[in-house]
Design goal:
By secondary structure, this protein is mostly helical. The protein is built from 23 helices and eight strands.
Amino acid sequence: MQHPSPRLLCTLLGALVLSACSALTPPEIAARPERPLPSPKAQPAPPNTTDVAAVRAPPTYPGVVSPAPSTLIKAETADGGAAGASFDDLMDRIRAGFQLAEEEQRAIDVQLAWYERNPEYLDRVFGRAALYMHYIVEEVERRGMPMEIALLPVIESAFEPYAYSVARASGLWQFIPDTGSRFGLPQNWWYDGRRDVMESTRAALDYLQFMHDEFEGDWLLAVAGYNCGENCVARAVARNRAQGKGITFWDLKLPKETTAYVPKLLAMKRLVANPSDLGIEFSPIPNEPYFTRVDVGQQIDLKLAADLAGLTHDELFELNPAFHRWATPPQGPHALLLPIDSAELFKQNLAQLTPDELMRVNHHIVKDGETLAEIASRFGTSVMTLRMLNGLEGNSVQAGTDLRVHSASTQLPEKVLRAAARVDGPQQSTPARRGRPEVHVVRRGESIWTIARRNNMSPQALMRLNGKTMRDKLMPGERLILARNAAESSSHSSSSEGKRMTHRVRSGDTLSSIARRYGVTISQLTAWNGISAKTTLKIGQRLTIRTRGR
């Protein structure tokens, strides 16, 4: 058995420890105006890749040691607070932090050409990024890392926090389950740390810094390792060394997806650095935090939390996508990310409630033959929660027992239901589905079309329910959720009725650019808002947007 190199041990031992970041309707809940939220839309895939690239769990490899989560902060961090304050537009701050050398490679030009042909893709991606980008930039800057790293979620997930790949990678940074666990991201019935905005960012930067040190300061190799795993890159480096060949990224024989992955990032860096040269215009993103973290201290109904903050259910889940049930987990975490201009309102309204009012509680009289598992499934909760709430030690319960049962106060957004369905599998149903979704195990030779036709579904509905796109490949043994009941009708209803959103006009916005961002027409915009195509928009003006459900 080989031991870690002295250099790696020194790196790990010398690293600093990253500290942790810092239903009943309540009476007289103060109101707050509706705020805009970028509309998540399906994205076309850049060339030679799937929609999202998975971070694979690498096999063990001699000389490569997994870092402990939260321990890989460089001592020589940049003073992001002082440096970053000099920019009004966050995009300018990002440009100023670029560190990677410019490369003249045809592979970069190929990816750049795709971005140039798809400006609507960039509008949608950076529209979503506006919610999360400032936090990511702060963390990258604080660690002294190249600012190109802040653009990786563009490549990984198109800044869609609910992105889910065929490899089961999830979240902004696309961790697969094993790699997420390796870097301290819990995944359970209530919560998936891979979708936690702050925690997944911490884990991703930890992983990248670990690989940067392992590959002797080569950031391109670290980025490549983020896509295919550090051992994949280490083996390629070892092969080239043994053959007397170069060991830069451009010299290595790597998987096809990884070969395109690094050029995608470098193409995005070039695009962001000089957008006008390429005929691209980025809407400014304010160089200020969008959200703050508020610790509730106990379990809370998330619909109630949204009401207390003056947010819609969808708005709350866009910042808190790690929760895939109707409440925070019984044992935590109970911290919520809230827009800064909503946090104080939330705290004021929260102070009016007692701890018992933070969860909706029902009573259920146990019938003869009922089990805790059956009761938990009926009320959309877990056996563990039932035991905790009622002081039970085992899984059995006597008929006639009056059980206290937490229950959801409202229908969850469709994206949250899909995330929960991946955890439930064939054993449990979510509270909003009122039925048990069937599960189909993919067999060799089956396709999206054959499975959908056999189950009287459209291929699009089947993929939407499972968080996939029509470009994703099915793998033998993969489980697909089938919606034959209320779940499917709910999905169809959402798709046909759409949802109402609000867009707040920013500097440089036009009716044309807003319509392009949300995938609607100018005539629709004017009709929804009672304005004409010649109306002059004012900064801060709120426009109603109606989008199709996804």
